[in-house]
Amino acid sequence: MKASELDRKFDAGEDVSAEFDWSKARRRNIESKRVNVDFPVWMVTGLDRQAKRLGITRQALIKMWIAEHLE
Fold first, then answer.
1. How many CA atoms lie within 13 A of 20 on its CB side?
2. Which residue ranges make up each domain of the chain?
3. Which of 3, 7, 8, 30 has its CA 20 to 30 A from that of 38?
């Protein structure tokens, strides 16, 4: 199928998902790389308090805060 035909079907609201090989699909810039960071105890305590208040893990909180500051 040509790209123009795919665009036409997509724009018309047709399901074009069968046209893709999802086993090869990748999300860009989503690969993870492990890093280790040492924090003083008082920071870890504060992080845990904020994470609990938000109902998320410490790791999720750190990722969220870093992402907000990198945008």
1. 10
2. 3-27+39-70
3. 30
